[in-house]
Amino acid sequence: MNAPATANEDLLYSVADGIARITFNRPQARNALTFAMYERMAEICQAINADRSIKALIVTGAGDKAFASGTDISQFRAFKTAQDALDYEARIDRVLGTLEQCRVPVIAAIAGACTGGGAGIAACCDIRIGTEATRIAFRSRARSAIASRCRTSAGWSRWSAPRAPRT
């Protein structure tokens, strides 16, 4: 069954032949996520859990520069208290938990940079596929939902796809 594509412009969603696809569609901002994009991704995962015709989910970013660079820093301008930061972490933990618990295999198709929250999203996927240009990096923090899923030591971590031997 094919479903029409839905969009809020920043996050595209479509289903074709049982394969659902989420595309972060902000290439001008290296596919940085807004709070609305995180919430929409969680809603989609919940809908997929209820729709037995969907067999897999592919998550990707528009363009070839970035899969996702994490949360758009402009989203933090409204933060006034420490509780705002804690609420943000709780939101991200809930959204990433919803992605992790999606009943179908979730595949991250990564081209370019995959940093911060984007690396957290990729870490929640069952399979991560990258190109030679794929670069994954994130800053782990003691109280970070993203860092806890990535299970790394403090500081920046980086991963680059191994190069295939040339023949």
Summarize the structure in words.
By secondary structure, the protein is of the alpha/beta class. Helices cover 29% and strands 30% of the residues. It is built from 4 helices and 10 strands. It has helices at residues 35-50, 82-100, 117-124, 145-150, and strands at 3-7, 11-16, 19-24, 56-61, 66-68, 106-110, 113-115, 127-130, 135-140, 155-160.
Task: List the topology elements.
Layout: E1 3-7, E2 11-16, E3 19-24, H1 35-50, E4 56-61, E5 66-68, H2 82-100, E6 106-110, E7 113-115, H3 117-124, E8 127-130, E9 135-140, H4 145-150, E10 155-160
Parallel strand pairs: 3-4, 4-6, 5-7, 6-8, 7-9
Antiparallel strand pairs: 1-2, 2-3, 9-10
Describe the global form: globular
Give the strand order of the largest sheet, numbering strands 1, 2, ... along the chain. Answer: 1-2-3-4-6-8
Span between N and C termini? 42 Å
Number of domains: 1
Quick structural gist:
With 167 residues, the chain is an alpha/beta fold. Helices cover 29% and strands 30% of the residues. Helix 1 packs parallel to helix 2.
Which features characterize this protein?
alpha/beta, 2-enoyl-CoA Hydratase, Chain A, domain 1, 6-stranded mixed β-sheet, 4-stranded mixed β-sheet, 4 helices, 10 strands, 29% helix, globular
